[in-house]
Design brief:
The complex is a heterotrimer of chains A (399), B (511) and C (349).
Chain A: H1 2-7, H2 9-25, H3 29-42, H4 46-61, H5 68-93, H6 101-116, H7 122-125, H8 148-172, H9 178-197, H10 207-210, E1 217-222, E2 236-241, H11 242-260, H12 262-272, H13 274-279, H14 284-310, H15 321-332, H16 344-363, H17 368-398
Antiparallel strand pairs in A: 1-2
Helix pairs in contact in A: 4-16, 5-11, 5-14, 5-15, 5-16, 6-8, 6-9, 6-14, 8-9, 8-14, 11-12, 11-14, 12-14, 15-16, 15-17, 16-17
Chain B: E1 3-14, E2 17-23, E3 26-28, E4 32-37, H1 43-50, E5 58-63, E6 66-67, H2 73-78, E7 81-84, H3 96-100, E8 107-110, E9 113-116, H4 118-132, H5 147-159, E10 165-169, H6 177-192, E11 196-200, H7 204-210, E12 213-218, E13 221-227, H8 233-241, E14 260-269, E15 273-281, E16 285-290, H9 296-304, E17 311-316, E18 319-320, H10 326-331, E19 334-337, H11 341-345, H12 352-356, H13 361-364, H14 374-387, H15 405-417, E20 423-427, H16 435-450, E21 454-459, H17 462-468, E22 471-476, E23 479-485, H18 491-498
Parallel strand pairs in B: 4-11, 4-12, 7-10, 10-11, 16-21, 16-22, 19-20, 20-21
Antiparallel strand pairs in B: 1-2, 1-3, 1-5, 5-6, 8-9, 12-13, 14-15, 14-17, 17-18, 22-23
Helix pairs in contact in B: 4-5
Chain C: H1 2-6, H2 8-15, H3 17-32, H4 39-64, H5 72-90, H6 94-117, H7 123-142, E1 147-148, H8 151-157, E2 160-161, E3 164-165, H9 166-184, H10 186-196, H11 198-203, H12 208-234, E4 236-237, H13 245-255, H14 267-286, H15 293-332, H16 334-337
Antiparallel strand pairs in C: 1-4, 2-3
Helix pairs in contact in C: 3-14, 4-9, 4-12, 4-13, 4-14, 5-6, 5-7, 5-12, 6-7, 6-12, 8-12, 9-10, 10-12, 13-14, 13-15, 14-15
Classes of the chains: A mainly alpha (399), B alpha/beta (511), C mainly alpha (349).
Chain lengths: 399, 511, 349
């Protein structure tokens, strides 16, 4: 088939012209609707458009949705998930999968808290493995020190990189499939985080760290009428926060890596055909390991944002359930589990979809369990849509 | 003569392109019909229509004078049409017997429970295997069999039910000469028992040798169907390409230079190759002939750094290779066109431009920021594709998989060309490429040598090596067993050396 | 490395790595933990392994076709919840409760199969989605409350035959059925074929849709069965019932030699893997290792088992390449084939 197409190039062109005139003349409404629908379905922005339309419609029924506070809340829900999903997108592009992200989030959260927590109640914490050395009644390793927050942040990022390095090494040096390698990583580090804190949450994080989350407001707006000279604190809405800047920074960096650099091209080559890539001199092992490290880094950034928001170091943060949201966002955003496909923009739209969907279901006052069930259903529908789209694209290309 | 099967004005188009155009073909009982044509001539589409994979747009098929309208492969099988495909459709994790009976195991009851009847399975399989001349137990797992044995197993699978028409679609690509001979014997036996055989091949000599009648296709049209005697090889080619090919090979323009680019000294890798000595000069095309499994691909992989060796030394431009790695080879400007385009050569879903620049990518990237200069990159790809006369759409958007076999091979060559290679290792560069594109690839090889590169040309087609090379080395069982200079080229002697049946001693190893 | 890979000892270790790992771990705990090496303990290990074991056997079917079933844990939960609610509300007999659990499990699998076969969604996404959905539906049905089972279920749970506890008997029956299906029925052999090459299977006339559909149903029924049997032991179904069992089931199947790429694996291997995992857990409990450290050790055991499996596969591939060559030598070169030992020794210089 393919041979025929290229050797008959003029015919193909001819055919296209005929088709174009067909389109111009055939003008029945239903035809145009079908065409319009197809175009929409194939557009990069399809998921975003669907999400927003659904949200706008739902807002007519549940006025909670349209409240500014709700909207800013949704924004802040998006950033940490997006940060983590960026890493997963990279992994999916090289035809891998990173189940360990859930564990990385927990580990990074705990490690950060162990470095900077400002006080710890001995009654609760004296059974911890590092009580008396790293952890004392005064708090974590660097409690109260001005460098506590930066060191903690670095510690969190490093733990993410380390988990990624280990998973990546299992894959590239020990020839273990990504699923099993990251599963081993997931089990190991989830329980490592639990062991470090014996399942306890660590509170008392310094203000400077908490400000990295949503409380670090950069641009805030006030909507209501200006009656009092004083505006109440809770009426001021944070639109741009530290987490916005951090996540967008990460996203632009990732987009640069993926679309503009040799690293991104190598990733796509590996995801499409690892053997051909290797023979062509692509340093496959190094790239794969680096991608898992980047995935760990993204998970750690997510951990920073989640931890700052919750104001506690939590060993059960992340976990397997978050995986549905993470991988779901990527897949809805156009990543393929078979590799070679995926974009940061698409993943962002996937995240928007997930967060808004959750918000709508929540506003409809469904129980969290029903929300889970519906979310699952939507993933199936999204995956189905993706299948339809790929088929449509294939048909379009071959005509 | 009885016509068992015929097509009448069969037509099939895909998205407006007519792949099979008004074809009326006749297949006789007790005869072998050779079917030839370039890639894309419509042979596979025609066979897919007969096999029920596709349905014709118009026209009809008659089987024993009755209308034959298969809706799927199972219908075709039911009607007594057996297919032996070029690519093997065997389950490597199952036994031969299970492969043969996968869609209908014999079963028996023990009490209320039904079991696969392994005894019967074995007996029936054994008789088929004996017939095709495959001397292994019926419960041999495919994984442990050689490519040739697998091909015979595939044939056994196609023949176990009583087919009336047997279609062989290029079955000899993975067979050794001996196995090919056995295959022809089977085909003759089938013919003699009154079956109809359709044999598709690119090897025109084989077609001429075995067919009773020959059909030639070009651009979806049946150019001729006549008895085999009325065809010469020249006429077949003439009909296939639509013009007379003055020459099969381009005139030689390259001159060997005195300096040695590559020297392999006593290289051994346990179980792969043994005591290999060879040298390659600039401007030289060195042929490497060997049968499947002779170690020629293994040697190429070792020279390129894909596999390691245990003993010996490799010198590139006079310098001894210390680290045998792919990246080192690329740095030393060695190129490797692998024998398997699909699996080792191309990123099928990726654009032609990105495929073309994959090897030389670091040249377009900033070391620090890793930023890739997209414009320079697509310019370079454009230039390379123009030099190689690539026939394609927009190279920055068209995916490699949308190209024909010959053009895909050009992309693989272009990919290495951008790295300005000194040493070009080409493993079966013309496999799966049609006659016209073959000539173009030969021209490229000649031009590479003309600009001073050394080419190591690996092939299992002696003719093309004789047509192209300055020297030919022959490998067998992992060793170099013969060397022939241009004046000594002789098909029979080379083949004899490859079989180690030489009455003459193999030439002394090259230093 | 090359020399090492040639030695007999190396080959022996590699080809029996999981067995050796089993013996080493067994010996370690037998020597260091008191009373570990006893018949009672062995029986209790097998009993505790039976839940993951049955799931792993079901998982093996799915993995054989290169699919995956992440939803078995939620399936267990949903099946047990529905059976439990029916038994409590309508007083249905235990056997009907069991039947209910099996049917719910089967339907669950049927839905997975529908999404994979008809909607053509990747199995990973399908079962990840149904993992979340199933638990959601279950919690909705129970309003997130624990379901306590009626006392008569306990009688069923404590049944013994010749002193063997009921879960072990169920385990054995499941194993036998699985071996029967995989080895002695056309459907079973077709599962191996589909996992090896789905396109070739289709061309060969195998009804691949039916095969794929059936593996998800089998895995689903196995999950329903485990849900019921486990519930009859603990007598209550709470929100976390069966959570993350899917991971242990996959791990057990993989330790037992099943490939995630399809076409390779066996029911016996899955059973073996499940018992190995359970033995590690029991041993760690015997040695009173910190609760949080136990899963970490388990993760290491999975890693070691899979690591050796990887070496073995690579080793086989390497040897096969040689085999092909030597074989051709035999057929093509009668002159020298006699003088060709296998594998061919090369001068050591």
């Amino acid at each position: 088939m393919s041979a025929i197409q290229t050797e008959h190039e003029p015919q193909t062109l001819n055919l296209k012209r005929i088709k174009a005139t067909d389109l111009a003349t055939s003008g029945s409404l239903s035809d145009r609707l079908v065409r319009w629908g197809k175009k929409l379905l194939l557009s990069d922005y399809f998921i975003l458009i669907v999400s927003i339309i659904a949200y706008v419609i739902a807002a007519q029924f549940f006025d909670r949705l349209a409240r500014p506070l709700n909207m800013t809340n949704q924004l802040s829900n998006m950033w940490p998930l997006f940060a983590v999903a960026i890493g997963q997108t990279f992994v999916l592009i090289i035809a891998g999968i990173d189940l360990a992200q859930g564990a990385t989030i927990a580990l990074a959260s705990v490690v950060g808290a162990m470095i900077m927590a400002e006080n710890l109640n001995p009654d609760m914490f004296d059974k911890l493995p590092f009580w008396g050395s790293i952890l004392t009644e005064n708090g974590g390793l660097l409690a109260g020190s001005p460098i506590a927050t930066p060191v903690a942040v670095i510690g969190m990022l490093v733990s993410g990189l380390l988990v990624g390095l280990i998973v990546g090494t299992l894959i590239t040096r020990f020839n273990i499939t990504p699923f099993i390698a990251s599963l081993v990583g997931f089990i190991f580090f989830s329980y490592f985080a639990l062991w470090l804190t014996q399942s306890r949450n660590i509170s008392g994080l310094p203000e400077s760290f908490v400000n990295l989350g949503d409380s670090g407001e950069l641009i805030s707006v006030y909507f209501g009428p200006k009656l009092d000279p004083e505006i109440r604190r809770r009426d001021i809405l944070a639109v741009v926060t530290a987490s916005t800047v951090i996540t967008l920074g990460l996203a632009f960096f990732a987009g640069y890596l993926l679309n503009r650099t040799i690293f991104g091209k190598h990733m796509i080559a590996i995801g499409t055909n690892p053997r051909a890539a290797e023979i062509s001199g692509v340093p496959t092992r190094r790239v794969i390991t680096l991608v898992y490290m980047f995935s760990g880094l993204c998970a750690a950034v997510g951990a920073i944002l989640y931890t700052a928001r919750l104001e506690i170091g939590q060993p059960t943060l992340g976990g397997l359930n978050l995986l549905l949201d993470i991988i779901g966002s990527c897949v809805i955003g156009g990543s393929s589990l078979f590799g070679g496909k995926g974009s940061i923009k698409g993943t962002f739209f996937g995240v928007v979809f997930f967060v808004l969907l959750g918000n709508i279901l929540d506003a409809a006052q469904m129980s969290p369990f029903v929300i889970d069930a519906v979310k699952g259903l939507f993933i199936l529908i999204a995956a189905l849509l993706d299948y339809t789209r790929t088929r449509l694209v294939r048909v379009e290309q071959s005509t | 003569m009885t016509i068992l099967f015929e097509t009448r004005s069969l037509t099939k188009s895909f998205f407006g392109i007519t792949a099979v155009n008004n074809i009326s073909l006749e297949v006789e009982e007790g005869k072998i019909l050779g079917l030839i044509g370039q890639n894309g001539a419509g042979k596979s589409t025609l066979m897919n229509l007969i096999g029920g994979v596709h349905q014709p747009d118009s026209g009809q098929m008659l089987l024993a004078d009755k209308a034959y309208t298969p809706r799927n492969p199972a219908d075709a099988k039911q009607a007594g049409i057996a297919f032996i495909h070029q690519e093997l459709n065997l389950f490597t994790n199952l036994t031969i017997a299970e492969n043969i009976f996968i869609d209908g195991f014999p079963t028996r009851r023990i009490g209320p429970i039904r079991f696969i009847d392994r005894g019967q399975l074995k007996r029936e399989t054994a008789s088929i295997l004996e017939w095709v001349g495959l001397d292994v137990p019926a419960d041999t797992v495919i994984e442990t069999m050689s490519p040739g044995e697998r091909q015979l197993a595939e044939i056994a699978k196609a023949l176990y039910f009583d087919a009336r028409i047997i279609i062989f679609d290029e079955p000899t690509t993975s067979l050794t000469a001996r196995e090919t001979e056995r295959l022809f014997e089977i085909m003759r036996q089938l013919r003699d028992t009154g079956k109809a055989v359709i044999y598709i091949s690119h090897i025109l000599k084989d077609i001429a040798a075995i067919s009773d009648s020959i059909a030639v296709m070009r651009d979806g049209v049946l150019m001729a169907q006549e008895s085999a005697e009325s065809f010469t090889i020249d006429r077949m080619i003439n009909l296939m390409v639509g013009r007379k090919l003055e020459q099969l090979y381009p005139p030689k323009t390259a001159q060997s230079e005195p300096d040695t680019l590559l020297q392999v000294k006593n290289v051994s890798a346990k179980g792969l190759v043994k005591d290999i000595d060879l040298s390659l000069r600039g401007g030289e095309i060195l042929g490497l002939f060997g049968l499947m499994g002779s170690g020629r691909t293994e040697l190429a992989r070792i020279i390129f750094g894909l596999d390691q060796f245990d003993a010996g030394e490799i010198y590139v431009e006079g310098k001894r290779r210390t680290a045998n790695s792919i990246r080192n080879s690329i740095k030393n400007r060695i190129a490797f066109v692998t024998e398997n385009r699909r699996e080792e050569g191309l990123l099928m879903n990726v654009s032609i431009a990105d495929n073309t620049t994959l090897v030389s990518l670091p040249q377009f990237a900033n070391d620090l920021t890793l930023y890739v200069n997209q414009q320079a990159l697509s310019d370079a790809a454009q230039q390379a594709s123009q030099i190689l006369q690539l026939k394609s759409g927009d190279i920055t958007t068209q995916a490699a998989k949308a190209l024909s076999g010959g053009n895909q091979q050009k992309v693989v060559i272009a990919k290495w060309l951008l790295n300005e290679p000194m040493i070009f290792i080409m493993d079966e560069p013309t496999r799966g490429v049609d006659v016209g594109a073959k000539y173009e690839i030969y021209t490229i090889i000649d031009q590479l040598a003309a600009i001073g590169s050394g080419v190591l040309f690996i092939s299992s087609e002696i003719e093309e090596l004789i047509g192209m090379c300055d020297r030919i080395l022959v490998m067998s069982q992992g060793e170099v067993v013969g060397e022939f200079t241009r004046s000594e080229f002789d098909e029979e002697r080379i083949l004899r050396a490859a079989f180690r049946e030489g009455e003459e001693k193999p030439h002394a190893a090259v230093k | 490395m090359r020399r090492l890979s040639e030695s007999r000892l190396f080959n022996f270790i590699i080809n029996n790595s999981t067995g050796i790992l089993f013996v080493v771990i067994l010996a370690f705990f037998a020597l260091t933990a008191q009373n570990f090496f006893s018949l009672d303990n062995a029986l209790s290990i097998i009993k505790n392994a039976s839940f993951i074991g049955v799931l792993a056997v079901g998982m093996t079917f799915v993995l054989l076709t290169a699919g995956i079933d992440l939803s078995v844990g939620s399936n267990m939960y949903l099946s047990a919840v529905v059976a439990g609610l029916l038994m409590r509300q309508f007083d249905i007999p235990v056997w009907m409760g069991l039947l209910t659990a099996l049917s719910i499990g089967g339907l669950y699998g049927l839905f997975n199969g529908f999404c994979v076969v008809v909607l053509r969604i990747v199995p990973f996404m399908v079962t990840l989605a149904t993992l979340v959905m199933g638990r959601g539906i279950g919690t909705f049905l129970t309003q997130s409350e624990q379901v306590d089972l009626p006392e008569r279920v306990n009688e069923f749970g404590q049944l013994r035959l010749l002193g063997i506890p009921m879960p072990v008997i169920v385990f054995l029956i499941v194993l036998l059925i699985a071996i029967y299906i995989l080895r002695y029925t056309p459907l079973g052999r077709q599962m191996y074929a589909v996992g090896n090459d789905p396109d070739a299977a289709k061309k060969a006339g195998v009804n691949t849709d039916r095969v794929i559909w059936s593996v998800y149903v089998i895995s689903g029924i196995a999950a329903g069965l485990v849900g019921f049997v486990l519930a009859s032991q603990v007598m209550r179904v709470d929100r976390s019932f069966g959570e993350s069992y899917e991971l242990d089931a996959i791990a057990a199947a993989v330790i037992g030699g099943t490939s995630l790429f399809g076409g390779v694996g066996s029911a016996l291997g899955a059973v073996f893997g499940a018992i190995l995992l359970q033995m590690v857990e029991a041993g760690l409990v015997f040695r009173s290792v910190n609760l949080y450290l136990q899963p970490m050790v388990k993760a290491l055991v999975i890693f070691i088992a899979v690591f050796f499996d990887g070496i073995r596969t690579a080793n086989i591939a390497q040897q096969r390449r040689r085999y092909i060559r030597n074989d051709l030598d035999d057929t093509d070169a009668p002159v020298s084939s006699a003088s060709l030992p296998e594998p061919k020794p090369v001068s050591e210089s």
